[in-house]
Amino acid sequence: DAKTTQPNSMESNEEEPVHLPCNHSTISGTDYIHWYRQLPSQGPEYVIHGLTSNVNNRMASLAIAEDRKSSTLILHRATLRDAAVYYCILRNNRGGTSYGKLTFGQGTILTVHP
Amino acid sequence: DTGVSQNPRHKITKRGQNVTFRCDPISEHNRLYWYRQTLGQGPEFLTYFQNEAQLEKSRLLSDRFSAERPKGSFSTLEIQRTEQGDSAMYLCAGPGQGINGANVLTFGAGSRLTVL
To answer: Which of A10, B90, B93, B116 would be B105's cystine partner, CB 3.0–4.6 Å?
Structure first.
């Protein structure tokens, strides 16, 4: 599986935007970029995913570089409840590959200050 | 509803004992996944089921580990002769829906194992 690189930790203040970077220089054309987050004492939860175009949903936005070698998860207004570990994962969409077999890295620990 | 329930949430056991964890998807799905997460690390894939069939097992799943899904609904993960290195969070996941109906995972809250 292609590898992703994320900063170990980031800090933000409440109600400010947060930009969480992810590098994936060896991404292949069939790799989707998925983001999950894990709140304390919980299992991971899906946040957003994309292939080439920028994506928005109620939780966040995903900005994907034109060469697809990096992406950024954007939380537009951080809240205390957004404090979590954020994982950037590449998921290959080749036929026959189990979509649920994900390779997690160590992720980015996001601290949100009041 | 695509939730996943796991029991027990916490288990403390002595080295050498057997433990069993249960995963109940709230609604029926053909696929079910088990992951393990040690402290400070991301989750690692262990195994997955399609209905009753166990289709893939990670090398992490030693012969002391066995997973079953007898009726294609709930699943159990048993660890025999536990070792201190088995201490981890064991996570179960089922299918969920992402943007545009894409297949993603919905995880349970996990079962934390501490082996003394």
So the answer is: B93
User: What distance in Å separates residue B26's CA from the closest CA in chain A?
Assistant: 15
Q: Which of B42, B108, B109 sits opposite A87 (nearest CB)?
A: B42
Distance CA B21, CA B99 (A): 31
Residue B99, amino acid: I
Q: What is the pLDDT of residues B1-13, one digit of tens each?
A: 448 999 999 999 9
Nearest of A19, A47, A44, A43 to residue A33 by alpha carbon: A47
CA distance B47 to A31: 21
Mean pLDDT of A12-31: 95
Average pLDDT of span A97-113: 90
Percent of chain A with pLDDT over 70: 94
A41 reaches B (C-beta below 8 A) = yes
Residues of B in contact with A48 (CB under 8 A): 98-99
As a whole-number percent, the residues of chain B with pLDDT over 90 amount to 78
State residue A77's pLDDT score: 95
Phi, psi values for residue B84, rounded to 5° = -60, -30
Nearest-CB residue to B107 (from A41, A43, A55): A43
Place of tokens 């994907």: A64
Q: Does B21 touch chain A (CB under 8 A)?
A: no
DSSP labels for B6-40? EE-SEEEE-TT--EEEEEEESS--SEEEEEEE-TT
